[in-house]
Design goal:
It is elongated, with a radius of gyration of 23 Å. Helices cover 76% and strands 2% of the residues. α3 packs parallel to α6 and α6 packs antiparallel against α8. It has 8 helices and 2 strands; from the N terminus they run αααββααααα. The chain is mostly helical and 252 residues long. Strands 1-2 form a two-stranded antiparallel ribbon. The protein has one domain. This is Flagellar biosynthetic protein FliR. It is a multi-pass membrane protein. InterPro entries: T3SS_IM_R (IPR002010). It is found in: Cell membrane.
Length: 252
Amino acid sequence: MTLSLSLASLESLMLVSVRMIAFLVIAPPFAHKGIPSTVRVMLAMGLALAVSPRVSGPSAADTGAYMGALVQQVVIGAALGFLVSLVFSAVQSAGALIDLMGGFSLSQGFDPMTQVNGAQFARLYQLTAIVLLFASDGYQMVVLGLVRTFDAVPLGASLDLAKLGAAATEGLTGMFLAALQIAGPLVVVLFLADVGLGLLTRVAPALNAFALGFPLKILLTLSLSSLTFLALPRIVKSLTGTSLSAIVGVTS
């Protein structure tokens, strides 16, 4: 029994798998440190085996040209993964805003599992978004967007840097806007609490508003954060659609 493999097929398989690995290393939810690197590589190779038969790339003239094509695929996969990561960073940024206004940022630390440097709500929101992506099959939409990039950007083509820069700028602006929309109601309540404590200090100077403010803001944050937390499923669903639009906008 003999098994013959085409060199062109192997080259295309390697180029497809390199783009997918670079994407899965950066894009959520696959970038979470709780997912072993072996699982990411196996997932990328499995997807590459499914996609490579319908993807045709130019045959490399020599080793140098092929290595250049590999680097090009790494750049494309990393750029697309960065756009997806930028979109979902809005959830973490919203948690960071709540930590800042609620007084939890004093106890922030680095979480090696989620790769998040923040306090309780920043890490909680980030982990919840990852769980929701797996529970709601949102990760399949992210993978589908990656697979569709091979139709818009074949193996021999390159990304439009102008579109990539515009998408990154728009994604950064949208991240801050989405973070304010997620955490905005609670931030406004905490800001009004600060204003009320300031006015109370003017009325009763002997009252230690600083000592009263910390437990009051923590109580308000813990009491009202559930309203924002319950909206996370709809938010993650919306961000998944936004990430797909960002990928399609760059590769179209």
